[in-house]
Amino acid sequence: MKILAIESSCDETAAAVVEDGRKVLSSAINSQIAEHRKYGGVVPEIASRRHTENICAVVQQAMEEAAVTRDDIDAIAVTAAPGLIGALLVGVNFAKGLALAWNKPLIPVHHIRGHIAANYLAHPELKPPFFCLVVSGGHTHMVEIKDYTDLHIVGRTRDDAAGEAFDKAARCLGFSYPGGVQMDKAGKDGNPHAYKLPAPKVEGHPYDFSFSGLKTAVINTVHNAQQKGLEINAADMAASFGYTVAEMLTTRFCAAAEEFGHTTLAMAGGVAANSTLRSRLQAECDKKGYSFYLPPLSLCGDNAAMIGSQAYYEYQAGHLADQSLNGRAAMEIDTEF
Fold this sequence. Notes:
The chain is an alpha/beta fold. The protein has 10 helices and 10 strands.
């Protein structure tokens, strides 16, 4: 089964053709990072306008790279939630138009389910059940993958997502957007124990996270130093911040896995590209004898191939949509459209 998938939830216009949920025939991405960098983050109105301008060419590129025609496509998939509503609507309405014109089934996909499915593309042997840590700019979740479309949230952030905290701390330190990538690079030359940073906990909820206090601690440390005429070593702070985030995520994720009886673990999302977090989790899983799966860096960020992968399993479960499908800015990962 060949699925044409479309992703436009934030600042990447992407399209891909995926076969049977596991084989990528093509993946085309038009990124807007360079344009949004001057503003220090994604400007929603600009993002949606660029999606409108780019989506036709990106879909055509994906079709050409896969060497397929409309007759070869069995279904159209699209990210319908969550994300920037204006950006989502571009992809959703384009997908609805294609599905109607080509007389193909329309498959709505949850963006975070797509991130988890990136692991299916990289690891053909990976099958549910398993336990997944989802870390991105807008989401931090620990999720039980009971089946491909049956998911249960075990823990989550109560405020900032890990990626959001990275970006805000990076901005305070003077790094350009996207801050998480710059923090990771700078931290490789820094001392992770140079600054003692808090690792906040949520009382009564051991598997939930709070990154707001950690972010604020960095901002306060930088501002206090500036007021005293002192310099902050940006590499040391980046390393200390990355180390603290990795410790928070790793210890709670592995503790939850043990309590819920999971020995097969995975990670997904944009922050899954962070080198400190990848190595820390891999080391802990090796120590405990857990199987640990990571997507390659190319599949950590937003892309349409992961949407096409998850769409295959949504189709198998009968999760289709009609022309009334709408984009949704917020939606829980364990609910259906």
